[in-house]
Design a protein that fits this description.
The protein is mainly alpha-helical and about 160 residues long. It has helices at about 30-60, 75-80, 85-110, 115-140, and strands spanning about 15-20, 20-25. A hairpin with a 2-residue loop joins strand 1 and strand 2 (about 20-25). The protein is elongated and about 100 Å long.
Length: about 160
């Protein structure tokens, strides 16, 4: 009498695993390296985002006299006149958008069952992310609170008279 075949089961924590007779190698593939880097990015950007968000909230809501009621066109114009705040808000925008897009990419990979749906959802996600990052970057660096030739009554209080 012959002995029945035993299923092939890899040693726990080994780089090889067998599922339904198919052997998968988890080491050395480019996809696993990308996923590891994406996982690492989520952790590091999350920590940095905490600092950036709380700094943003303190600078905009606690420091100015009047709290949230002090935020207006002149407040933003005065803040973005300083390159430090431009870089701060740019870093906040880029990190938050890429952090959120990476999280959504993971959700799409987990829940979109068909390859076609997964492709189109990811394409829409990447296009929306690129659009928001591009538009936000342009707004931060091209914002002009004191346009030349504008009516003096419409200009912010810190703008020089034309």
């Amino acid at each position: 009498m012959s002995t029945p075949l035993k299923p092939q089961i890899a040693v726990p924590r080994s780089n090889d695993r067998v599922v339904n007779g198919v052997k998968y190698n988890r080491s050395g593939s480019g996809r696993s390296k990308f996923e590891m880097l994406a996982w690492l990015y989520m952790r590091l950007s999350g920590i940095l985002l905490l600092v950036l968000v709380f700094g943003h909230l303190i600078a905009n809501l606690i420091v100015p006299e009047g709290g949230v009621h002090a935020i207006d066109f002149g407040f933003v114009g005065g803040k973005w006149a300083n390159p430090f705040w431009q870089v701060w808000d740019l870093a906040l925008l880029w990190l938050a958008m890429l952090h959120g897009a990476n999280g959504m990419r993971t959700i799409i990979d987990d829940y979109a069952e068909r390859d076609g749906a997964r492709f189109w959802l990811k394409l829409a996600l990447f296009l929306a992310t690129a659009f928001v990052i591009l538009l936000g970057t342009l707004v931060i660096f091209t914002f002009e609170p004191c346009p030349t030739g504008a009516d003096a009554e419409l200009l912010a209080s810190f703008c020089p008279a034309p």
